[in-house]
Amino acid sequence: MIYADHAATTKMSRAAIEAMHPYMEELWGNPSSLYGFGQKAAEALSAARARIAGCIGASPEEIYFTSGGSESDNQALRSAVAAGERKGKKHILSSAFEHHAVLHTLRQLEKQGFEVELLPVHENGMIYPEQVADAIRADTCLVTIMYANNEIGSVMPVAGIGEVCRKKGVPFHTDAVQAVGHLAVDVRAQNVDMLSMSAHKFQGPKGIGALYVKKGIPLLPLIEGGAQERGRRAGTENVPAVMGMAAALEESLAHLKENTEKLFALRTKLIDGLSRIPHSVLNGDRKNRLPGNVSFCFEGVEGESLLLLLDERGICASSGSACTSGSLEPSHVLLAIGRPHEVAHGSLRLTLGAENTEEEVRQIMGAVSEAVDYLRAMSPLWKDKACGKKEFLLN
Ligand SMILES: *Cc1c(COP(=O)(O)O)cnc(C)c1O
User: Fold this and answer.
1) Residue 154 Cα distances to 120, 218, 240, 282, 293, angstroms
2) Which of 86, 133, 145, 199 has its Cα between 20 and 30 A from that of 246?
3) Is the CB of 144 under 6 A from ligand 1?
4) Using CA positions, which residue lies closest to atom 14 of ligand 1?
5) Which tens digit of pLDDT belongs to each residue from 320-347?
6) CB 205 less than 6 A from any atom of ligand 1
7) Is 74 in the pocket of ligand 1 (CB under 6 A)?
8) CA 351 to ligand 1 centroid distance, Å
9) Bridge-based pairing state of the strands 209-213 and 63-66
10) Shortest CA distance to 155 belongs to which of 123, 178, 139, 132?
């Protein structure tokens, strides 16, 4: 199998697995228990919190553990707008290509009377600080813009966006699920007020994540119950998962430089190779993108069919289009950067990890190129284009 879907999830690192073991077999006590056995778990939890905080330039008291990126996004948004509403502010500024954990939460907030404004995304996959500055209003209660896009890999100028928000006194949340563990994240230097992260995107366990909340920014609980996480997130802490997350993050950052260099090289090869397929286009900026991200649209191809053909060759990849409830809607991200519906349907996302090899990249290139040829040969629409009856949309 060739795994090229690291933006969907990653294999746990050995370090993460080993860090979890003792907290399942030996130190499995409840951190809220007062006896020493429970307190040993509490101490480990508190040390892990400090280690994770250190990895993003935060203080331990600013880290709240959650079940992952989706919960962190939900809590950040709902909490920030509740604080804004108390001051009569009901305008939320976000972008058209956020993850559904953000977009679907915004949709709910809209139903509750908030006004949601989604900034348009440039064709290169970018949102610029000036756009945010121009759109912030006196009644804006929250700006939420993702750090790096999970489909097209573009990386936002987070520090600049944060600076604009700070100057205007508006809280700034960023969904950094694709960034943490893969880019150098520093919440202080980058003027971030709230940040979501998820362990399974950086070789930690699934079902654990964190929300960073800057000191002084109020945080409301989504889940009520016990006093865990200083009363902001009830439920017995998942100590093994937290230990795995801390180990995975430290390990990712320890190898950040070498992994980034390796991924840059693999990614460039893959982009160059796939660019040779006629009537194709790279999504997102060529340079300013996540180290392992390669995203293309191929005209005259259905993304889902392409994925199935790649799967037959043992290649795990992903398509931009989310096939929800039988209706084949093209990806909102590709539409946001201006791809026509027809083109957006032919999308392919390959996200590489440090374990991928040059040989695998070669095999992926060959398989994609053959699959695209095969699917085009079967398409009546493609035949019309090839003989000039219809126009090509991509050169
Ligand atoms: C994966 C992902 C999420 C969701 O994280 P989970 O931990 O799976 O809930 C949110 N935002 C982005 C950008 C992601 O890539």
Assistant:
1) 14, 30, 33, 12, 9
2) 145
3) no
4) 177
5) 655 544 557 899 999 999 999 999 999 9
6) no
7) no
8) 15
9) antiparallel
10) 178
Q: Is 84 in the pocket of ligand 1 (CB under 6 A)?
A: no
Give yes or no for a contact between 83 and 140, defined as CB atoms under 8 angstroms apart. no
Q: pLDDT tens-digit profile of 160-200? A: 999 999 999 999 999 999 999 999 999 999 999 999 999 99
* Nearest atom in ligand 1 to 8's CA: 1
Of all atoms in ligand 1, which is nearest to the CA of residue 71? 9
pLDDT (tens digit per residue) in 246-258: 999 999 999 999 9
Q: Among residues 353, 357, 369, 368, which one has the least CA distance to residue 4?
A: 353
Alpha carbons 276 and 18: distance in angstroms, whole number: 43
| Separation between Cα atoms, residue 206 and residue 67, nearest integer Å | 8
* Ligand 1 proximity of 247 Cβ (cutoff 6 Å): no
CA distances from 241 to 56, 162, 368 (A): 18, 30, 36
Rg of the chain on CA atoms, in Å: 22
Residue nearest to atom 10 of ligand 1 (CA): 69
Look at residue 3 and give its three-state secondary structure. strand
Answer whether 77 contacts ligand 1 (Cβ < 6 A).
Answer: no
Q: Which residues are catalytic?
A: 323
Given a contact cutoff of 8 angstroms between Cβ atoms, the answer to whether 148 and 154 are in contact is: yes
Q: Ligand 1 centroid vs 376 CA: distance in angstroms?
A: 33
C-alpha span between 308 and 287 (Å, rounded): 29
For residue range 299-317, what is the model confidence (pLDDT) as tens digits? 999 999 999 999 999 999 9
